[in-house]
Amino acid sequence: MGVAEASFSFSLCADDFALSPGVSRGILEALDAGRLSATSVMTTRPSWPKGARALSQFKGKADIGLHLNLTLGAPLSAMPKFAPSGYLPGIHHVLKAAQKSELPEAEIRREISRQLDSFCDHFGAAPDFVDGHQHVQILPQIRHWLFECLEKKGFSGKTWLRNSGDRPLQILRRGVELKKALGIAWLARGFAREAARRGFSTNYGFSGFSSFDPCRDYAADFAAYLRAPGGRHLIMCHPGYCDEELVSADPVTLTRERELSFLLSPAFKKLIEENRAKLSRFSAV
């Protein structure tokens, strides 16, 4: 009996490459094992230049994108209004200011441009896609400045964008982190429509929201992420190894190793086969 044809394909993207050397090492292992089809890069982090060289072996084999960062660590440019301490503010501050249209336009436009330039300079190519740390790419004001920066750099029609929202019914059918997923979907309303109007494609269908609780069964959660897939379904994940730099920078630590362990296990491959699913690169479609 032949192998059953896949009933749907999806992209599996590891966020936070270059957040720390341990995170990057775990993502590189998963890419090498063929368990990921994309990863997004934090170009603000100290390990990005070295990480870019290691990641270059996957150019054209996986989608490599920019993980726009406006909420963790230090920015690449001076931001006296947005980050007066020299460190980026937390997501709650950014969200509140975005909803009130109070973000400093010039500073954030410049930082978006600097992060894109750092990606291109070190990786030697434009990003296949752009997403955002803590989904900042979908926020009011920021989304418009991102679109315009990408257009100015000539990336229209070449770079796709992550739409972090999905339809409420699909979110409810998965039943994982409902409050977070529905809240992000509300913030993302209109994002895909505006992106398409400007010549950027997006994913259609999105899952992977996590409580980052090390006691949860990640395999069971991943099975839920595969439910009710969209026509261009994207699942985010956060694998990696925990190291001192990660512990000092981000609260999400132990769950990264659990995610990586699952992705590299036979159980992951079996789950994909049982769901007649197939990993795919959006840029290759």
From TrEMBL:
Stored Gene3D superfamilies: Glycoside hydrolase/deacetylase
Keywords, comma-separated and alphabetical: Carbohydrate metabolism, Hydrolase, Magnesium, Metal-binding
Pfam family, one: YdjC
Coiled coil: none
SUPFAM superfamilies from the UniProt entry: Glycoside hydrolase/deacetylase
UniProt key word Transferase: no
Name assigned to this protein: ChbG/HpnK family deacetylase
